[in-house]
Design a protein that fits this description.
264 residues, alpha+beta, N-terminal domain of MutM-like DNA repair proteins, Helicase, Ruva Protein, domain 3, 4-stranded antiparallel beta sheet, 7 helices, 10 strands, 22% strand, globular, DNA-binding
Amino acid sequence: MPELPDVEIFKQYLSSTALHKKIRSVDIHSAEMLKGVTAQKLKKTLKGERFISTRRHGKHLFVEMAESKKWLVLHFGMTGFLKYFKNTAREPAHERLLIHFSNGYRLAYDCQRKLGEIALTDAPEVFIQEKELGPDALEPDFNVDRFKETLKKTRAMIKSALMNQKFIAGIGNVYSDEILFQAGIHPETRSSELDEDALTTLYSQTKRVLRTAIDARADPDHLPSTFIIPHRHGHGTCPKCKNNIEKIKVGGRTAYYCPQCQKG
DNA sequence: TTCCATGTTCCGCA
DNA sequence: TTGCGGAACATGGA
């Protein structure tokens, strides 16, 4: 489930495995996932390089190269993840990009449904601007005033507004449900109708939920029992009031919420 | 077999 | 004109 917390974990994973190692060769299995760069150009750019640093903005991961100073950009769609391995037995099933290092290890970008994206950019800032991405949900500069300002100016349903990457980068379907549950706000509430108190609560819960998820390594099994995410499938019950969780469509996406605890 | 899924983008309508 | 909301996209599992 690659939303902000998941991508943060991918960033930590890549940083602790694949940095500073020489890239011997690159295999591109699904060239249609490359955006704005040809397979030939990407291979040529990566070959002989070393990754030296990583950054994350919302759901995008940026990996800097030592020589060219360019950045590899990875977006994970609904099903993407990374795997660093040596044994072919550990090779994932839907590799779209495979980077071979001179130490014999490989870094696979696996994306079963191919809704992710592989790109190259001169700088993360340039990419973020071109994509018109909003501020990262966890960046310190994104304070309560900017959060309120952003959400007051749209009449979209609050769940849709939280998921709009041009407003705030990093929140997807699953964590928007969690944030709204923790804040006690109904997902279909019009964003512009939220009062100051509701917005203040929503802001602090946005930060808290995302940080808590990162601390849990974005693993649903490690999330607090007070979270709704573990009860998000099947016929779950609310961890606060024990009533049944409702499943509805909001802006075309599946939303789970507690009708008792989340009022419009 | 049909439906549904955590992602973004595109198009029609208000 | 702008922005919202549903459909489409690619693929596979229930």
